[in-house]
Specification:
The structure holds two protein chains of two kinds. Chain A has 23 helices and no strands. Chain A is an all-alpha fold. Chain A folds into two domains: 74 residues, no CATH class; 495 residues, Cytochrome c oxidase-like, subunit I domain (Cytochrome C Oxidase, Chain A, Up-down Bundle), CATH 1.20.210. In chain A, helix 4 runs antiparallel to helix 11 and helix 7 runs parallel beside helix 11. The longest helix of chain A is centred in the middle third of the chain and has 35 residues. Chain B is of the alpha+beta class. Chain B folds into two domains: 103 residues, no CATH class; 128 residues, Immunoglobulin-like (Sandwich), CATH 2.60.40.420. Helices cover 41% and strands 21% of the residues of chain B. In chain B, a hairpin with a 4-residue loop joins strand 6 and strand 7. In chain B, helix 1 packs antiparallel against helix 2 and helix 2 runs antiparallel to helix 3. The longest helix of chain B is centred in the N-terminal third of the chain and has 34 residues. The N and C termini of chain B lie far apart (75 Å). Classes of the chains: A mainly alpha, B alpha+beta. The structure holds copper (II) ion (2 copies).
């Protein structure tokens, strides 16, 4: 019986609707998600008479979970398991349909397994989330323009602050690893797709599933406890905390699925001859970043689950009244929180090192040292978490050891600088926009790195912890370095996804606005912090006014720069100068396939005889 | 594309750029830091400022080195022709350079660590005459300070909303919270510790300059976190005793008892 059905299906043309399951898309995802959320909210009201004190919490949690499951169903993420459950095998035509064959632009709105579609979807999603986080940043900076400003009230201010943090963390985690870890990395390996194409689509749409409850938080009272959601204030704050927590758990499902997929793809899908010592450095970075994410992110989901239980099920992991402690949260949070910085940073470093070789026309300097540097950073990063807890009073006797591990990270980080400098060294620097963003990255990362060393030192951290100095420090890393890297990567790989260049002039304007904006905003913010301004203050003493005004002006400048690049992307996608398949004359595989890249990438899988950094060397000399 | 075009590196101009940048960096470190940071009124704050200066001076030549390469590269190695630049002379590795780089960064790290541990030890061993305990309690959104010494001297409790401590004497703070986590920070004294509900954390400091100082909450504690600020007044022994006697008896010792 089923066999006949399969036969018919496999003969139907791929573009044919082919039933309900094939028609699922982003719109049906939203509709089913909303239905799930409403059911989750109202069914408990219907069934339970005895509604305890935590009932509102319980309903929001169930509602948010209802949204996620409804959205998964509506987008088609559960279609595969559903069919297998009924014993229907996927036919080749089904697979092709799922990969978006002959569906044109429509496939970008669907649960599509083609890694290149997923990459583009990630790019757009990252930009949307960065935009939302950026708008919140502007609102925060606007509120801080004068000491007692009441542009927004304190409750709203705290909500903006918390959401800004979390949105930016999420968007930066996906900003490089999402678009390019999906679009570029499999081609760099010489693979036809990711190891698990369906899981790849799942990881993308699960970020969307997480983003909606996260943003919903703002509209149901917000949260008062920052993106770090320290306990016990996370137990005290309003019902927004429940959607926030479910959003995090959902997001961690996404990063875990994506991490497994990335690691498996690189370990198993490489083409003949693509040994690990010939792997492009960006793919190495994806591997290390992906593996580190697998270790780090689950702490966040676990800790958030405990928060939900404390809020709605009467447990007391974090509540001192019945034997819990906030230090437990802090430990779990930073077990995730520090490695997560490198989950964000390492893929950006990988992308930038690719840019460094191509635009210096030289091989990557000291390839193995570069891998060692990234691996060293990743390895050490799991041993340093308590440097965020030097002033919490938890285990003062461990201060020394954590100071040691933290300061050791400066050695592999220094290696990254050495590799970048060694690659540029005596090269023929082709100062196209990707290379300009790389130069900005290096300059900013120095400041971000050095200021981190102060914070790793306990006597200094005793004055700087919890101040604007810390905020300026990690913004030099996240904005000045990672975001510059992410944008550089867009300028670099955009021709591959669109067949068009981004406009050079707009790219330069965008760079200079962003670069100057970063210095103005965050140098002034260092001063605010050194003078004693704590972070997360909605209003502040008059002594901090000048530096805050300067920071606000700088922040607007950064935003202007970002908008220029956004306009550039939108305009160039439609009418940019055609680029051809390999405009930068690069040697990694993604540039050697046609543009647009065909489904399954390669007609014949390539056989690799050397690493892709043979600039100035005779071809095959290092086979 | 086939011809290798090798750019030159000449040491002298590079060294000039590097030296100038290093000099600027060191000048900012030494002159700028004390001006930028909060004025010191304790050993801890003094050590913090000193450490920032020392670390900045140590970091200046390294940062200047990277910036110098960038400036030099942009000035000398930039390809000015049309189209794709020719390949440059390949440089796959340089074991000496890599070893030297790692060696230097390991030495610097060791220095930072030894300095940091020594500074930490000196902070931890801070002691002064007449140690006096002050119980610090954070609650949304105010600080309160209790003086057990008043019970000995005056046989009643004293509680205030500003901190008053005698100069050049050791003050021991027992810090806790009645609701959520707060952060107790006296910037000029260079000490900071979280006020955690259900636990007491401790700090010791010997203030060495009389005056009025700020106290700020540094752990996000909800709605009015930014209003959770008060003052510390460091006074002479005599002024302290006078102040203490002027304080009304407070009803009972509250909030500092540890629940557990
Ligand atoms: Cu950290
Ligand atoms: Cu506070």
């Amino acid at each position: 019986m089923t066999a006949t059905i399969d036969l018919q299906k496999s003969h139907s043309p791929a573009t044919n609707g082919g039933g309900f399951l094939r028609r699922l898309n982003f719109g049906t995802g939203i509709i089913f998600g909303i239905i799930g959320a409403l059911l989750g909210y109202f069914l408990p009201h219907h069934f339970f008479d005895n509604q305890g004190s935590a009932f509102a919490d319980q309903c929001t949690v169930i509602s948010a979970v209802g949204w996620v499951i409804g959205f998964w169903f509506g987008i088609g993420a559960l279609a595969g398991p559903f069919k297998w459950f009924l014993g229907w095998d996927q036919t080749h035509a089904d697979e092709m349909y799922l990969a978006g064959k002959d569906q044109g632009k429509k496939r970008y709105w669907k649960y599509c397994t083609d890694h290149k579609v997923v990459g583009v979807q990630y790019l757009v999603l990252a930009m949307v989330l960065l935009g939302a986080g950026g708008i919140l940043a502007m609102l925060i900076r606007t509120d801080l323009i004068s000491p007692g400003s009441h542009f927004v009230n304190q409750q709203v201010y705290n909500s903006f602050l918390s959401l800004h943090g979390m949105l930016m963390i999420i968007s930066l985690i996906i900003a490089v690893a999402g678009p390019w870890g999906n679009f570029v990395m499999p081609i760099q390996c010489g693979a036809r797709d990711m190891a698990f194409p369906r899981l790849n689509a799942l990881s993308l749409w699960t970020v969307v599933a997480a983003a909606v409850p996260l943003l919903t938080t703002l509209f149901i009272g917000g949260i008062q406890d920052g993106w770090t959601t320290y306990a016990p204030i996370s137990i005290q704050t309003g019902i927004g905390m429940n959607t926030f927590a479910i959003a995090i758990i959902t997001f961690v499902i996404s990063t875990t699925v994506a991490g497994v997929n990335t690691v498996c793809t690189i370990m198993t899908m490489r083409t003949t001859g693509m040994s690990l010592d010939r792997l492009p450095i960006f793919t190495w970075a994806s591997l290390i970043g992906g593996a580190l994410g697998l270790y780090a992110m689950p702490f966040f989901a676990t800790a958030m689950t405990m928060t939900i239980l404390d809020r709605s099920a009467g447990t007391s992991f974090f509540s001192a009244d019945s034997g819990g402690t906030g230090w437990l949260w802090e430990n779990m949070f930073w077990l995730m929180g520090h490695p997560e910085v490198y989950v964000i940073l390492i893929p950006a470093v990988g992308a930038l090192l690719e840019i460094a070789t191509v635009f210096s026309r030289k091989p990557l300097f000291s390839y193995k040292t570069a891998i060692g540097g990234m691996a060293g950073i990743a390895g050490l990063s799991i041993l340093v978490w308590a440097h965020h807890m030097f002033t919490t009073g938890w285990a003062p006797q461990l201060g020394g050891p954590f100071m040691l591990t933290t300061e050791l990270i400066s050695i592999p980080t220094g290696i990254i600088f050495l590799v970048a400098v060694g690659t540029i060294w005596r090269g023929n620097l082709w100062m196209k926009t990707p290379m300009i963003w790389l130069m900005g990255f290096i300059a900013n990362f120095i400041i971000g790195g050095v200021t981190g060393i102060y914070l790793s030192d306990i006597p200094v951290d005793n004055t700087m912890h919890g101040t604007m100095f810390v905020v300026a420090h990690f913004h030099y890393v996240f904005v000045g370095s990672v975001l510059f890297g992410a944008i550089g990567a867009v300028y670099f790989w955009f021709p591959k996804i669109s067949g068009r260049f981004l406009d050079e002039k707009m790219g330069r304007i965008s760079f200079w606005l962003a670069f100057i904006g970063v210095q103005v905003t965050f140098l002034a913010m260092f001063v605010s912090g050194l003078r004693g301004m704590p972070r997360r203050y909605a209003s502040y003493q008059a002594i901090f006014e000048h530096t805050n005004v300067i920071s606000t002006i700088g922040a607007y400048t950064i935003m202007a720069g970002m908008l220029v690049s956004l306009a550039n992307i939108i305009l160039s996608w439609r009418s940019g100068e055609p680029s051809g398949p390999n405009p930068w004359h690069s040697k990694t595989l993604e540039w050697l396939v046609p543009t647009p890249v065909p489904l399954e990438n390669f007609e014949v899988l390539p056989v690799i005889e050397s690493d892709p950094y043979t600039y100035g060397e005779k071809e095959g000399a290092r086979a | 594309m086939t011809k290798n075009n090798s750019n030159k590196f000449s040491l002298k101009p590079f060294l000039v750029i590097w030296a100038v940048l290093t000099a600027i960096g060191i000048w900012i470190s030494i002159k700028g830091t004390p001006w930028l940071m909060e004025k010191s009124a304790s050993h801890q704050m003094h050590m913090a400022i000193l450490t920032v200066i020392v670390f900045s001076v140590a970091a200046a030549p390294v940062a200047a080195g990277i910036y110098a390469v960038q400036i030099y590269a942009l000035a000398k190695w930039r390809y000015k022709g049309e189209g794709v630049p020719p390949d440059a002379e390949p440089l796959r590795n340089n074991v000496k350079a890599v070893s030297a780089w790692i060696g230097v960064s390991a030495l610097l790290t060791t220095f930072l660590l030894i300095w940091g541990l020594a500074a930490l030890a000196s902070d931890d061993n801070v002691s002064g005459p007449n140690p006096m305990t002050v119980n610090v309690t954070g609650q949304q959104w105010m600080w309160s300070f209790q003086y057990p010494i008043a019970e000995t001297l005056l046989h009643h409790n004293v509680e205030s909303n500003i901190l008053v401590i005698p100069v050049n004497n050791q003050a021991n703070f027992n810090v806790t919270s009645v609701d959520v986590t707060h952060g107790f920070w006296v910037p000029s004294l260079g000490v900071k510790v979280d006020a955690n509900p259900g636990t007491v954390t401790t700090l010791s400091v010997v203030p060495n300059k009389p005056g009025w100082y700020d106290i700020r909450c540094v752990e996000l504690c909800g709605l009015n976190h930014s209003a959770m600020i008060t003052k510390a007044h460091v006074v002479s022994d005599k002024e302290f005793l006078t102040w203490l006697k002027e304080q009304p008896a407070s009803p009972a010792a509250i909030t500092t008892s540890v629940k557990n």
